[in-house]
Model the fold of this input.
Amino acid sequence: MTDVPTNGGQPRQPRQPRQPRHAVRADAQRSVDALLTAAAEVFAASGVDAPVRQITARAGVGAGTLYRHFPQRSDLIAAVFRHEVDACADAAPALAARYDPADALARWLRRFAGFIATKRGLSAALHSGDPAYGSLPSYFQDRFIPVLGGLLDAAAAAGQIRGDADPMDLLRAVANLALPVGDENDEHAQRMVALLMDGLRYGAGAE
Amino acid sequence: MTDVPTNGGQPRQPRQPRQPRHAVRADAQRSVDALLTAAAEVFAASGVDAPVRQITARAGVGAGTLYRHFPQRSDLIAAVFRHEVDACADAAPALAARYDPADALARWLRRFAGFIATKRGLSAALHSGDPAYGSLPSYFQDRFIPVLGGLLDAAAAAGQIRGDADPMDLLRAVANLALPVGDENDEHAQRMVALLMDGLRYGAGAE
DNA sequence: TTGCTAAACGGAACATCGTTCCGTATCGTC
DNA sequence: GACGATACGGAACGATGTTCCGTTTAGCAA
Done:
């Protein structure tokens, strides 16, 4: 066993989990989708500390299935987070196509506030030091800053809002406004976001 | 049951837990002391989320005893917090008597940084909305601001440090520096606190 | 179509945790 | 010294995260 002449350069252990034999089994894909959907709903309703069984029950799968696809709880949380970030970011083009720039911006900010409102308990999780969360903040920024930047630029170019708004500033502001604290309903958040939007409109043309 | 004529003005439920019949039994006092000491050590080592059994084992006490004195977990955490705030604040007079003002200030700030360093996970607990924590922030301020203010005034009066340092600002700054994040040891915090102290000295007499 | 095997599934079982319960031991008083 | 209120210990309970393993199924091949 001094040498391993077989499979030169092709290590036996699967370095790429892709192409294990056939791409991905249909039932596995269904399970993952069901889990992501169920987890998103449960997290929104009860926070990210919700019991695992509640998620598996809603998804109609066993606990073993969950842990097969998401070995750690944090993996599921991170996956749901990314999934929702994508959904929110991907909503922008449709809005931009259907509404005029300022309206599209306002609608997307509302959408974004709704996204944030489902993130109760996540900020604590983010600071837990779990490496599974390490890439989430940058993912958040990488996806949202270009999207919001585009909407802002379009509205500014149309002369509908002021031109000096910084996307990151606005993301942080809306996130702080919409993060649920205590028992206040999200009506308050929506009003504050609308106020922010009016602030942007008010400065149109100025400077 | 339309009226309750009995015990006018003296509600039956014990509003003051003091003076139940005789002051407090000696064994009960021992248990409380052992629990506070053990909890402080365990919290410092493992954070406030440490298992309850670990605390009772270290205190040499049964679980029932813990819950008799601290009906909720948050009660124990709050009690330990208050206990340590007191110990830290009470350390100031001795330091002020033994060392010259600026030295006493520096030593107390180190002491305070050590206090903060044991508070991993507490900030999350404070924001959990549990009413048992409601009074902790004001307790923190009420005890520390006069203590630090006294030390600052003495050092400023002696011309050893600048005179425009705000106690609350300094508390927040040191707390932020000393709060353990990730795996860094507290050496870093002590260096930063020393730096802050040098900053105070540097401004002596200025302005 | 039928057979086969790796992959995936479900849910019982295990370990751990916070909390409760209650029989027993102890303290302080009369 | 005896008695009653108080406190103690730790087993027991319910909930939860996680693992294990016998069973099922998807997808390929003959």
